[in-house]
């Protein structure tokens, strides 16, 4: 796929063209990323393999950093963590592509920069990710845009808006002035207890979640629909994520990012976007692995667990009432 759109050069407030750093070991992919970044209006500052960049002198980081990382050994993890810290301080935008095998490791390296993480993406997905970066550049203008492309962008904008609205409605106890894309640290404190995560903090009593077997049965029933209907008819990643994490909390188990992406029932890149937005909202918590601080797990916040417990309590009561009346 050849990028068939062209932007005016992307410039900062001083009129300087923004730069891009491209890091990829696969040469063909590296050249594709270069072509697409240039077509989008960026100036290429660096384009090389990960090891080459890591071994070179530390220079300025591009305003956009495109990284392809299919395997993450200790050296690569160290580089990714440095990029995360530098981008977090400088405001650079990171777009990182990886595979499912390396997802947990790569995800754990990015805690502060808000990196877009793509899983086994095609070229089109990378272009969309660059487009999301461009959406935050003020006064950007397209030189040429076909009508069908314009309609596609409108549909994408509408979908993102609907996603934000759905998450806003899901958020329990939304803080005054908070929006669907509000960045805020989680208020709950967590500690590791053996292989479990135990929440502590708020004094208000919370109803207990049902037994994990009850929640797993709900998940199995949802999955059973795929035997009879197209699964895309019922795609609801936010709810599937909440159900899986509720079951894991009842089982007192940790959940990896890879496992949660599978449970979401949508492509992994899409699942990661939902997870990121739900973490930003405070619905979910990102918890560093106590045995390896470079890795992270995902869990329900206490408020979200409370909302899920109340949901199950109310739905069980609604089912039990007609049954009792019939006796």
Automatic annotation (TrEMBL):
Coiled coil: none annotated. InterPro entries: CheY-like_superfamily, WH-like_DNA-bd_sf, WH_DNA-bd_sf. This is MarR family transcriptional regulator. It comes from Qipengyuania gaetbuli. The lineage of its organism: Bacteria, Pseudomonadati, Pseudomonadota, Alphaproteobacteria, Sphingomonadales.
